[in-house]
Every structure is written in C-alpha cells, then in structure tokens.
Amino acid sequence: MGEPMEKFFDGRQILADFITSYYTDFESDLTFVAEINKQVVGYLTGCRSQKRQRMIFMNKIIPPVCLKFLFKGLIFKSKTRKFCLNCFKSVLKGEFNHPDFSRDYPASFHINIDYKFRSLGIGGELIKNYLECLHQKRIRGVHVTTISQKAKEFFRKMGFTVLYYRKISYLDHKNLFFIILGKKLQGNNTPSANADTPFRKRGMTDLTG
Ligand SMILES: CC(C)(COP(=O)(O)OP(=O)(O)OC[C@H]1O[C@@H](n2cnc3c(N)ncnc32)[C@H](O)[C@@H]1OP(=O)(O)O)[C@@H](O)C(=O)NCCC(=O)NCCS
Predict the structure, then answer these.
(1) Taking the domains of the chain in order of start, what are their residue ranges?
(2) How confident is the model over 63-105, as pLDDT tens digits?
(3) How many angstroms separate the alpha carbon of residue 52 from the centre of ligand 1?
(4) CA 45 to ligand 1 center in whole angstroms
(5) Helix 149-157 vs helix 122-136: crossing angle, to nearest 10
(6) pLDDT per residue over 9-27, tens digit each?
(7) Where are the stretches annotated Disordered (predicted)?
(8) Which of 86, 101, 129, 159 could be stapled to 193 by a disulfide with Cβ–Cβ 3.0 to 4.6 Å?
(9) Cα–Cα distances in Å, from 200 out to 13, 27, 124?
(10) Which option is the CATH number for 5-208: 3.40.50.300, 3.90.79.10, 3.40.630.30, 3.90.940.10?
C-alpha cells in the first residue's frame, strides 16, 4: 500500500529479492527505472508471461530466498513471525486462491515510486513505456495485482479494469482487498511512450529500460 515493508516484515533484502529477483535476473529487458539526478526514484519490473514467471519463481527464486530466510533467523523476529502466521491462516482460508487471468492477460508487473516523488507523472510514464514494449512484442494483455485502493484508481486511470477482488486478512488492516486489474493490448490504442506526458513536460528525468 505504498508503506515501508518494515511495518510488517523485518528482512528488507529478502523481501526485495522475493519480489524483484525474477524480473531483474530473468527478464531484465522489461525492467524500467526512473531517475532524477542519477538517483533511482521509481521502478517497474514486468514480464511477458506470468505462467513462465511462476514456474521459474517456484524453482529458482523461492528455494534460495527460503534458505536465506532460515539462515538469517527471521522467523524469530516478532513482526515477521506474526506476518508468516497470518499468511499461513490465510492459506487455510483460501485467500491466496485467485482466478488465473494469464490466458487473456499473460503479462504482469510490479510498480513502485518513492513516496517523495509520487503524483508527478512518473508511474504513468513507466507504465506507458512498459505497455509500448508489450505492444511491440504482440502480447495480448497485461494484468496487475494490488491491495491499495489508491493504486487501483491509478491503474484505472491508465486504462485497466477491475477483473477480480476479494477480502484478505494477512495484513493488520480492516477492509483490505486483493484486487486484480487487466488491460487488453492488441487492437487497443496503447498510450504512446513518446507522448508529451506531464512528467516529460516537467523535464525532470530519464527512463532507463
Ligand atoms: C500507484 C503509483 C505507482 C502511481 O504512480 P504516480 O507516479 O504517483 O502516478 P502518476 O503521477 O503517474 O499518475 C498518473 C495518473 O493517474 C492519476 N492518479 C494517480 N493516483 C491516483 C489516485 N489515487 N486516484 C485517482 N487518480 C490517480 C493521476 O492523477 C494521473 O492522472 P493525469 O495524467 O490525468 O494527471 C505510486 O503512487 C506508488 O508507487 N504507490 C505506492 C506503491 C503502489 O501502490 N504500487 C502499486 C501496487 S502494485
């Protein structure tokens, strides 16, 4: 929800590896960063096919991350232990069983902008560049998951529609929803990455893919 992970998890590096290693190590041509004065202020890590991403994630990313998690003794840290326990309960409740949208919306991504640089057009510009790449590669659709209502509105603004949502309980928030949004690409008017966006107009930064 755009808050630092330390609110619920103690191992910053491990969670970062868990979320981003597939994208940076196996599909880096679809990772974009936004820089201001050579400082990275936002990123989008994407993939062409979530099916392929899931397979590699299970076989190559999860095992070393789990080993690191155990060796670093993170399970003994109170916040992490509570989070893991909540996740386990959610697994039993079926909260992680979501419909699979990868046939019509095969691509997927994560996006994050440093909180000091939000609402400047950077997220929109990263998405436009990513969608342009997917369009060139003739990918037929893309989906994204979020638990943030603000991000949901942002994605809707970028042309995504809500495909699915359900209540979740693994974070300490009432009324939290897991939301999947999707956007069809082929035959659509995908926003052009070269359009003169507010972010570009402000002339603040470069995007590096
Ligand atoms: C969500 C996020 C990626 C948006 O990036 P951003 O750089 O702040 O958004 P932008 O400034 O590019 O906004 C693009 C458009 O969406 C609109 N928008 C952004 N947030 C919105 C909101 N909460 N409600 C309605 N519209 C919104 C903007 O008004 C803008 O529209 P415009 O082009 O007509 O002015 C960023 O705020 C973020 O990283 N949040 C925390 C992490 C997160 O939630 N990630 C997504 C989960 S996967």
Answers:
(1) 5-208
(2) 999 998 888 888 888 888 888 888 888 888 888 889 999 999 9
(3) 28
(4) 16
(5) 60
(6) 888 889 899 999 999 999 9
(7) 189-209
(8) 129
(9) 32, 26, 11
(10) 3.40.630.30
Residue whose entry in the numeric block shows the structure tokens 């419909």: 99
Number of residues assigned to the chain: 209
Say which residues have a Cβ less than 8 Å from residue 109's Cβ, sequence separation at least 6.
23, 30, 44, 45, 46, 47, 130, 142, 144
Which one of 45, 119, 181, 202 would you pick to mutate in the ligand 1 pocket, going by the greatest count of ligand atoms within 8 A of its CB?
Answer: 119
**Predicted TM-score (pTM) of this structure:** 0.86
Quote the CA–CA distance of 149 and 124 in Å, as a whole number.
16
Cα of 183 to ligand 1 centre, how many Å?
16
The alpha carbon of 12 and the centre of ligand 1 are apart by a number of angstroms equal to 24
Q: Are 127 and 44 in contact (CB under 8 A)?
A: yes
Query: Average pLDDT in the 144-150 region?
Result: 93
Ligand 1-lining residues (CB < 6 angstroms): 2, 110-113, 118-124, 144, 146, 148, 150-151, 153-154, 157, 198
Q: Which of 154, 158, 180, 201, when mutated, tests ligand 1's pocket best, judged by the most ligand atoms within 8 Å of its CB?
A: 154
Q: Which two tokens stand for residue 9?
A: 């998890």
Cα–Cα dist 178/142, whole Å: 17
Other Cβ atoms within 10 Å of 43 Cβ, number: 21
Task: Report the C-alpha gap between 25 and 194 in whole angstroms.
Answer: 27
